[in-house]
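Note to self: keep these together.
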Amino acid sequence: MAGQGKSGSIDVTEGVIWRQLLSLCIPIFFASFFQQAYNLVNTFIVGQFGGKIALGGIQSTSALSELAIGFCVGLGAGCAVITGQFFGQRDDERLARSVHTAMTIALVLGGAISVAGVIFLPAILRIMGTPSELLAEAIAYSRCYFGVMVCSLVLNMGTALLRAVGDTRAPALIIASGCVLNVLFDLVFVVALRMEALGCGIATALTITVNASMVLLRLMRAEGPWRLELRRLGIDRRICRSMLSTGVPLAIQSSLYSISNIIVQSTVNSFGADAVTGWGLAARLDGIVWMVTEALGVAMTTFAAQNFGARNYARMRRGYHTSLMITVALIGGMALLLIAFVDPLARFFIDDDVVVGFTSKMIHFIAPFYLFYSVVDNTSGAIRGSGESLRPMLLTVVGTVMFRVGWLLAVVPLHHTLETMLLVDPVTWILTATLFVAYHHFGHWLTHAQRRAEKLDLVV
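Structure:
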């Protein structure tokens, strides 16, 4: 019977599917929860003790930070898929080579991004039109953040590799500890030393560095073939090619989605300050829904990758259908609760009838359709686990990015109402979910993945 293995790993190629999916999903959810808590605490401390200019400077870099994080997460996920396949295949030698190749990619690419970021960030921020009164604080914070991008990529790569072998508990604990450390560092540099945005940047950089070190230590102490040995760092060209062919489309997908979010925010801004506040509050209220959705998608990717490596294709499909049933129960129930209690929840944060009215309208508009986006995450996770990422990227770009941007730039100006703007998410989610479900059931993605794996010598 498969289950908990060495170093906290979980083999999901055998056993009760729904239990295994939940055992993967729950720690991932808590990792996302602590990551959100980390961001909220950062915002609160800087807002209270750093001042409006410091907070504005940090917020003005959020689009760049999103792009960087999205790229790191996407690349890490692609590398993890290949590692998960070797784990499911029980190919210890290539599993070991994949771990060392992935970490070498993280170190080299992360180092390059760190250097480029520190050098070119001031110019990029000026090109973006960052207000002059915020520019100094924005540069101070972003240079700290991008200066440790090598650590950020190591952190994301390491947690992705651990999840690929079924160890979702360790990343959750590491991120939770990072949340605590960040609070302590903020209290020192922002509150005590009054370093404002620079202090927040130093606190963030130190937290990322410590967390990356913890991930490396976890990998170096692993009791399986995925144990990291510094002397074995290097690139296996065949494995690297496969990782990049899977990871780069995911990185591009995340980056493009971040860009579309910028356009969404710009459209919301056109409806005034109260609408902007209501939109931000609605995003806070439904944040937990997106955490669950993301956790289910990542769990499905790990499940699919291991079973693809084991050539257990029937179990992959059963896992996908089981994940959909879990999604309907969890996301559907959470959506109903949020719709029912949105007013008192909103008033807990702000006692303003206009803002609460905007928040309520936004939640009532989009909450009934959360399930469609969760289906997208589940289905893309099931396909992505096979190493097939280019076509899912194209489907996402067409459905969630291109159509989304087209609606905002072409439809909303013709009928400039909040309701027309709010339709963008339901319409694009339904379209994208339909595309993904059709591709999963009628497309030849599994055949493509098998041929690709054979060509790259990833199956025996």
